[in-house]
Amino acid sequence: MKVVVYADGGSRGNPGPAGYGAAVFAESGELLAERRDGIGRETNNVAEYRGLIAGLEAAAELGASVVEVRMDSKLVVEQMSGRWQVKHPSMKPLAARAREVAAGFSRVGYEWIPRERNKDADRLANLAMDEQAGVAKPAGSAEVAEPAKASAKVAADTASPASWTGARGEPTRLYLLRHGQTELSAARRYSGRGNPALTELGRGQAEAAARRLGKVEGLTAIVSSPLGRALDTARAVGGATGLDVAVDEDLIETDFGAWEGLTFTEAAERDREVHPRWLGDPSVPAPGGESFDQVHHRVRRARNALLARHGGGNVVVVSHVTPIKSLLRMALDVGPSLLFRLHLDLASLSVVEFYPDGHASVRLVNDTSHLA
To answer: How many CA atoms lie within 13 A of 186 on its CB side?
Structure first.
């Protein structure tokens, strides 16, 4: 017998109160079984794996021999398909258990689907979290399914937590990390295409950020500016997460041209007419350098490449002040004034999510708690 398993999991906080859901269908489309349960405080990835395991176990109980798994978690699908390694310690036993159950079938296939096609499992996961929070009456974590029409009604009552924004699909989460301190940044001098090394403090900041990101489950990639201060920070994160560092030239800092190495005051005195125009008009380039409009254009190109390569993943992006502010500006859908109204500390962490339908969400800005 062939069945189709839809599985999902969620965490309201990541980590936070979490739950999973799984629905098993016959080839004819008949709903055969449902599973759901709250699992306490966990991450999205843990909950998604728990949903997969529950769905496979339900399929085994039904006597299935061929299973087609459909999930909107790219991480779980890629890892279970063998294309991505399972590196995070908390994921390894879950992946091992899923493979153990899957070994009992003659064939198992894994397919990534957009979230809107995974509504049954998403509904069950949210119902499990609601029950865990005491806002819905428990009905058991394993039961024979009610008719599909009733299932659809519950789905409408337990929409995804992100549904109020109108966002659809699996978001790509970017962990935006500014590099650690250099001698130029400590002296508050323009530091663009020059390549000053991290100071001893800067190396310590990079290690502190790496320890924090090493605790984040489900990271799928690290992408860095090509400049040494960013690459060294990114490599520290790579050492803590087991991920390789890729380079994107478009994430490089602004080319400040003739102002490289100067303080704000020195640049303003050197070019009394151009400097204030540069501050007031994003289309005006620094002498021998580039404009903020040019930076924004190439950072948008980098953002689009990240979404294309790592859609639905969790990516650490190590870069500089202006590129990170540009990504936040895109997520907030605001103008260039944000460049001058937002402060980003060295080795600070910001988090944004970009959805495939064009929506975005800013979850964290300029967090330096790991440096305390």
So the answer is: 11
Query: Where a domain ends, among 134, 161, 188?
Result: 161
Evaluate whether 221 touches 317 at the Cβ level (below 8 Å): no
pLDDT of residue 14: 79
Active-site residue, selected from the candidate residues 179, 275, 310, 320: 179
According to the model, what pLDDT value does residue 12 have?
Answer: 85
Quote the CA–CA distance of 79 and 74 in Å, as a whole number.
Answer: 8
157 & 176 share domain: no
213 within 8 A of 315, measured Cβ to Cβ: no
Structural domain contains residue 96: yes
245-280 pLDDT, tens per residue? Answer: 999 999 999 999 999 999 999 999 999 999 999 998
- Is 179 marked active-site? yes
**Residues 114-145 pLDDT 10s:** 988 999 999 999 988 888 776 654 444 333 33
Task: Say which CATH number the domain at 310 has.
Answer: 3.40.50.1240
Q: What is the CATH number of the domain that holds 40?
A: 3.30.420.10
Rounded Cα distance between 221 and 72, Å, is 18
Q: Point out the catalytic residue in the list 48, 68, 253, 260.
A: 253
Tokens representing 209 are 């950020």
CA–CA distance, 327 with 51 (Å, rounded to integer):
33
For the sheet containing 245-247, what is the strand order? 245-247, 221-224, 314-319, 172-178, 349-354, 360-367
For residue 20, pLDDT beyond 60: yes
Rounded CA gap, 261 and 319, in Å?
A: 18
Known catalytic residue: 320? no
- Report the predicted TM-score, pTM, of the whole model to 2 decimal places: 0.60
Other C-beta atoms closer than 10 Å to the C-beta of 157 total 11
106's tokens:
């003659």
DSSP 27: T
Domain span at residue 96? Answer: 2-161
Q: Do 103 and 128 fall within a single domain?
A: yes
